[in-house]
Amino acid sequence: MRLEDYWGIGPKTSERLVSGLGTSRAVEAIESADVRALVDAGLHRGRATRILRRANGEAGMDVLATGDTRSVYDDLLSLAASHAVTAHAADRIRVLTPLADRDAVEDRLDSVVAARDAWEGLAEADRERVVEAFDAYDDAEGSDLAAVETALALREAGLDEGPFEAVGGLEADALRDAADALADVRGPVDPTSVDGDGAIEIARGADAELDRLRDRLDAAEGLENSAFDVLDAVRDGSLRDFEALEAATIDHVASETGVDPATVRSVAPDDALDAADFVSATLRDLVAELEGAVGEREAAVAADIRERIGGVGAGGDEDGGGGERGGHVARAVAAVSDAAFLLSLARFAAARDLVRPTLVDDGVAVRNARNLFVAGEVQPVSYAVGTHSLADGAGVASADAPPTGDRVSVLTGANSGGKTTLLETVCAVALLASMGLPVPAEAAEVGAFDRIVFHRRHASFNAGVLESTLKSVVPPLVEDGRTLMLVDEFEAITEPGRAADLLNGLVTLTVDRGALGVYVTHLAEDLSPLPDAARIDGIFAEGLTSDLELRVDYQPRFGTIGKSTPEFIVSRLVANASDRGVRAGFEHLAGAVGEEAVQRTLSDAEWTGEHE
């Protein structure tokens, strides 16, 4: 396959990848979602991530039908990646996409939930040991030795069953032998070394005899590079003839290099033209002799290392035949990489108290769901559109139990009442479930969606924004397949009367197309009668806190229009006004919205402060 056949790769990007990786390695990196390889080749990390998402999840990316949906998707993956135990695992998380195959969703959910349970079942000391092992693995940039040592640490900590069975399938004794052998290797091991032809760079200290030969070679090369200095050192007035100079040269070279004098004499020329020729030829031939000796010893040590490692690369015995021992290191590398990815998702699920959703054909319903992007203590909410079985779930008061069967809800209520946050929560739940990941709720049922349309409120008020908004939300709605519509405040982009007409049309179109939808508005009372499959829900502000912050019950009340309760806002403005004239102006507004209600709100806030 040509590199330019992949989404996002043009001639310049292709040239850069070929230059940095070569065509076959670049294709391999794309197919295996290896962000690091593309970044090392010179691509920006964000661009590499986008390319790999498309290459490995083209169908799933179509679920992200709007820019706001993609924004939530990006934020979710960034949040999940923040719990990664290695940089490569974080990269693998960032290229996750919604899965088109429902069985694949179930399989990933099985793995992540089992991995979370395994992680939570570890003692604190074992968790620390695992994290430290992966930290060392990351610091070593995923070297073979680090992978083997990490595999051993995972086994010792107890992460070797269930979703981590690939780690448990490794032989501990073989891994220890391989670790000892890999410690004698400097740099990565060439996979072709399995059959004896590839390079193994042997570290100093691996073999004493090899170290001695290397020291002698280094000394001989140093003398060869300064042959005239050697000649000056051995030539003095006491030398009576050429034979004496030859003997002095041999003794000097033997002394400086540690090589036996007989060995030096054996390489010395018999037909040197003069003293300079004798010295230079002796040193040149001694270097060649030592290079041969070093090479022979390196080959013998490398053969021993191969035997102790049991083969390297994609598998294969020492003859390259694919034997069992040949796969130990390669299997450890693969098992550790997969374990890091799965454990990172498990840590995300554990840290955020995520639960496995129930996958259903239609509908989305959550019991006590939380928004992952809101800092601090969050009031959980229960909500649903479509058919579900959470209506009588434990932990939800009967008045708060989401009704079942309604295809569309129109969500109303106070400003700053959490309506947009609820849309974002439902969007996040649907996206996480589509990727085979647990969700932030006490319980959830999530259908399969071909498109998720999330559209935030926009403050601009012009025809261009209205047109672009309609172009964003209508085409996905009328396409074949199942669509989830999550649309915020149409009245922000056109005049209220026309916005109500448009919203009526969208609700009707959503029902007619068999889609699901939640539409946020302040115009519920201006809407025409809604279809039978639609309902109106409301969020209510309940007053002010002692700090004059709006106190809201974020749990929607089903079948009820929420109130914006402006007297609460005016009450806060009155209480906070320090200028007498400004205060008088706000008090005048209090008369317009109901002075009695404002005074009651201020009294309630004072009472709350006294009793906290």
Question: Can you give a write-up of this model?
Answer:
- The protein is of the alpha/beta class and 612 residues long.
- It folds into 4 domains: 102-189 and 321-351, no CATH class; 208-309; 358-562, P-loop containing nucleotide triphosphate hydrolases (Rossmann fold); 565-612, no CATH class.
- Helices cover 53% and strands 10% of the residues.
- The protein is built from 23 helices and 10 strands.
- The protein has a 6-stranded mixed sheet with strand order 6-7-8-4-9-10, sandwiched between helices. Strands 1-5-2-3 form a 4-stranded mixed sheet, with helices on one face.
- Helix 1 crosses helix 2, helix 14 (242-257) runs parallel beside helix 16 (275-309) and helix 21 crosses helix 23.
- The longest helix has 35 residues, at 275-309.
- The protein is elongated.
- Residues 191-197, 312-326 and 393-398 have low confidence and may be disordered.
